[in-house]
User: Fold RND transporter from Chryseobacterium koreense CCUG 49689.
Amino acid sequence: MKKSLIYIIVAALLIGWGAYTIVGNKAKQEKEVAEVAKQVDKINVNVVTASRENINTDYTANGTFIPKQETNQSADISGRVVSVYVKEGSRVGAGQVLASIKRDAIEVDVTQAQNNLQNAIIDNQRYENAYKTGGVTKQQLDNSRLQLKNAQAAVRSQSVRMNDTKVRAGISGTINKKMVEPGAVVSPGTPLFEIVNINSLKLSVLVDESQVGRIQIGQQVDINVNVLPDETFTGRISFIAPKSDASLNFPVEIEVANNGKLKAGMYATALFKTNYGAENQNMLVVPAEAFVNGVSSGQIFIVQNGTAKLVKVQTGKVYGDKVQIISGLNGGEQVITSGQINLENGSKINIVK
Assistant:
């Protein structure tokens, strides 16, 4: 009998404990459900604090070096090449003879032109003397003078042809390519030598339209060359294109003195110093991603008492992923940077980060 009573008491305690646990769990679940219900109508967002910063506006652009001067030297007359005096890599000066063309036939023409000139001089002298005594008419004298001038012009013409048998360098520089050998028959306009002048080089880069107004001719530019990481080079802007390309980029050339290590075709990065001091200091900025439908809208959401408030701001310049705020914010506001597509003015929000 005692045993039965003990079993009954234990059973009652277990039942009571179970009931208590169930009631407690139910209360806890109800509390959690209520908390979730409170969050259901809130929209998750990310925020940043609008703050003042010193903005570095230095601008970089990549490009390749091109020779300051380069030309494809060709012959001025047709003929057979008899001699070539340079090879690839040879340094040449402007006017230096690079090759010569066979001149035998031209020498014959020169001799004939000189003989004709001598005859014209003698004939003209005879007519001059005869005219003084009335032996010839004025028209005959004029014809004699004309023949003398034609003979003189013929000699000059043949002298030019004789000079053209020598192919001369148009610029000072280095023979980059030699495209002719002795015995080759050439004609005017056929490239024979490629000459490049790399005593100084030009770094050719493209500058975005938002930055081109901040640079100027003569401005000093620091240059980093990929294959020469331990070297520092400096150049000056020598050309800014007056017209952009289809991508709204402006071709810019920077002239750089060559210390002997630079080669045409090398890849380099130009650093344009556009940070002019006070105008870029203590500037109120927010991320570009904070704007509703793009920076041009001038609209952003800020956090106010747990809700999203839509505000209109006046924007200034864009610096990469940051936008200058001229008015509409004082600084310190929590600016919403994500989730704007789901927001309306007054929407309840839940700040994730």
